[in-house]
Write a structure and sequence with these properties.
Low-confidence stretches: none
Radius of gyration: 21 Å
CATH class of the largest domain: Alpha Beta
Oligomer: single chain
Largest sheet: 9 strands, mixed
Mean pLDDT: 91
Shape: globular
Helix content: 40-55%
CATH topology of the largest domain: Spore Coat Polysaccharide Biosynthesis Protein SpsA, Chain A
CATH superfamily of the largest domain: Spore Coat Polysaccharide Biosynthesis Protein SpsA, Chain A
């Protein structure tokens, strides 16, 4: 007799990217896991996206005014029914047909872990396969709980948004609490930061899980060009180093938590980790001071000169 399989909700924001819709939806349908709910939150596409989606009987499509991908994702969570929540951009797709079942099995084996994540692989607008993101982690076999939190303190590497699998109670508490109108924040960077600081535990699975497509008109490209993404990354980095500094100075005790919020353990950093994180804090602080000095100098109308040593 087959036991109950948790429902997995895949939430997909969409706006005028009809050329990618079939491949993205099909990559979800082709997953070998039997209990998936695909929710598409469309911002009012007028390029044929809605017509394409209407041919898929198992897709729950909601059309609303375009108020940004952040609000679309949060509204999708509210409309979802799944025990586990995942995201998928309408231009992206799964690279591994067993990814969702792999995540579910990992969650069932590790009830203390709130989130599992894998590796993204880049793909061009025309479908050419590119490099694997964070490829150095492919041989990692023990990156979970304390070790994954320590990785975050050291690197700041956020969870890949289109392959992370999160327990419902955690994503409701953390993701829905983010102010989607605050344009100084990137919602995925903010989620990664809050998830870690609030003490929830994550685990890494060494699998190339999804394709992230590089295409014209991509939101990230536009935000990078406008300088918006640099500001958000700087805010994210500042908060991470501030938290790391408090841990090193013993003014902050990092408390690990179960998905239900119950406290289970306190972080103890080894000497090597303390030295390395301290070094990174010093380097970041030095860069910040230099940048601020350069900005102040430029504001006074003076010229900042560089010299070769």
């Amino acid at each position: 007799m087959e036991t109950h399989k948790p429902l997995v909700s895949v939430i997909c924001p969409s706006l005028n990217l009809a050329r990618f819709v079939r491949q993205t939806v099909q990559s979800v349908i082709d997953q070998d896991y039997p209990n998936i709910e695909l929710i598409v939150m469309d911002g009012g596409s007028n390029d044929g996206t809605i017509e394409i989606l209407s041919h898929f009987n198992d897709v729950r499509t909601f059309v609303q005014a375009d108020t940004g991908v952040e609000e679309a994702l949060q509204n999708g969570i509210k409309k979802s029914r799944g025990d586990l929540i995942m995201f998928m951009m309408i231009s992206d797709s799964y690279a591994d047909k067993t990814w969702i079942s792999t995540c579910v099995e990992a969650m069932e084996r590790s009830p203390d872990i709130s989130l599992f994540w894998g590796l993204p692989r880049y793909i061009s607008e025309d479908g050419d396969i590119g490099s694997i993101g964070f490829q150095r982690l492919l041989n990692e076999t023990d990156l979970a709980r304390k070790s994954d939190f320590t990785r975050w303190l050291k690197t700041g590497q956020h969870f890949p948004e289109c392959n992370m699998c999160v327990r419902r109670e955690v994503i409701q508490k953390v993701f829905l609490d983010i102010n989607n109108a605050d344009r100084s924040l990137d919602i995925f960077l903010e989620f990664s930061k809050r998830f870690h600081i609030e003490g929830y535990m994550s685990g890494f699975i060494a699998v190339v899980a999804n394709y992230g497509r590089d295409h014209s008109g991509q939101r990230g490209k536009l935000e990078r060009k406008a300088g918006v993404l640099a500001i958000r990354e700087r805010n994210y980095r500042r908060c991470r180093f501030s938290y790391a500094r408090r841990i090193l100075c013993s003014s902050q005790q990092h408390q690990f938590r179960l998905p239900n919020g119950a406290s289970v353990d306190v972080l103890t950093l080894g000497l090597t980790d303390r030295i390395w994180i301290g070094f990174l804090i010093i380097v970041n602080e030095s860069k910040r001071v230099f940048i601020n000095a350069a900005i102040a100098t430029k504001a006074k109308g003076l010229r900042v000169r560089s010299f070769k040593l």
